[in-house]
Amino acid sequence: MKVLLTGSQGQLGQALRTSLPAQINGESLECIATARCANPSQGLHPLDLADPQACRAAIATHRPDWVINAGAYTAVDRAQSEPELAHAVNAGAPQALAEAIAEHCPSSRLLQLSTDFVFNGAQGCPYQPEQKPAPVGVYGETKAAGEQAVTQILGSITQSRATVLRTSWVYGPVGSNFLLTMLRLHAQRAARGEPLRVVADQVGCPTSTTSLATACWAVLEQGVSGVLHWSDAGVASWYDFAVAIGDLAVEAGLLDHAASVEPITTAEYPTPARRPTYSLLDCSATRRVLGVPVRHWRAALRMVIADVGA
Questions:
Q1: What's the mean pLDDT in 17-36?
Q2: Residue 28 covered by a domain
C-alpha cells in the first residue's frame, strides 16, 4: 500500500511517520512523506500545498492508494489577515488533491484532517459528525471549504472515497502548540513569582498527536469513509489544560515549580480571530467503528510530557 502524506514536518505529520505501521491488512506500507520545505536527504519530497498544480502533479506522479492530508494553514489569528493563503492551503489543496485522485487513481482514497473550528460553538453540547458546519473565522471557513471539496469530488452514492476526520486542540512533544507554550510560560512565570492568566470560558478537549495518529492509521486499516470525529476523552477549558500541564510537568521533573494559573474570560484576552466557546466533538460513533483504545486527555497528556522529558 502506497500512502502519500502531506505536512510530514508538522506535529501530526511527525507523529504519523513515527507510528508508521509495517503493514496494513497484510500489505506492506510505503509512505511518501511530503513537506513545503523538504530535505531530500531526510527522504522527504517537496510539496507546496498553496500550489494546486504541485498537488495535482504529486498525485499523478506517485499514484498513491491513500492520501493523508495532514498539512494545513493553522495560524488561526494570522489567517484573518492572510485569507488568500489560508484558503489556498486549507481549501485549494484538498480540492486539487481530490480532483487529481478522481482523474488518475480510480480506486484511491483521501483522508482529510479537519477541525472543531468548523463549528461556531453556540449550541453548548457535543457536535455530531453529520451536523452542518458554521464557522466563525477565516481558519474555520477555509477548513470547512476543504471538507466540502473532497466530499463533493470523491463522494458517491455507492462508495465514497473521501474521509474527513475532525479533531480538536491538537498538541504533541514537537512543533508549535499549547503544551510547549505553557511549559515555557510556567517556567518563566514561576521564576518571577507571576501568575499565568488563561481563558476559562472556552471548552473542548485536548488531543495528543499520538492518539490522533493512531486513529488515522485505523481509518486506513478499516477503510472507513464519511465524516468522523476524534479527540481524547473528557472535557476541559484552556484553563484546565494549563493547570494540568503545570501539575504533570512538576510530577515528571520537567519543572521545579509550576506557576499559579488564574482563570480569565475570553473578553479579557481579545484575539484577531473569534474562537468557538464550546467545541466538544461527539466521538462515540468513530470510537465504535475504529476500535482504537481511548484515553482521558489528562492520561494522554502525562504520556506526552514524558516524551518531552525523555
A1: 94
A2: yes
In-domain check, residue 50: yes
Whether the model pTM is above 0.90: yes
Distance CA 39, CA 55 (A): 18
Give dist(CA 127, CA 86) in Å, integer.
Answer: 24
Domains in the chain, number: 1
pLDDT in tens, 204-249: 999 999 999 999 999 999 999 999 999 999 999 999 999 999 999 9
Q: Give a yes or no: residue 257 inside a domain.
A: no
Q: How far is CA 121 from the centre of its chain?
A: 18
Choose, from 127, 139, 171, 278, the residue flagged as catalytic: 139
Q: Can you give the CATH number for the domain in which 59 is found? A: 3.40.50.720
Distance of alpha carbon 239 from its chain centroid, rounded?
Answer: 21
* pLDDT per residue as tens digits for the range 124-175: 999 999 999 999 999 999 999 999 999 999 986 456 899 999 999 999 999 9
Question: Is residue 73 flagged as an active site residue?
Answer: no
pLDDT digits (tens, 9 = 90+) for 102-119: 999 999 999 999 999 999
Domain hosting residue 111, numbered range = 2-168+208-231+282-290
Instruction: Determine the Cα–Cα distance for residues 197 and 194; give it in Å rounded to an integer.
Output: 10
Return the exposure string of 46-74: e unless at least 16 CB atoms fall within 10 Å of the residue's CB, then b: ebbbbbbebbbebbeebebbbbbbbbbbb
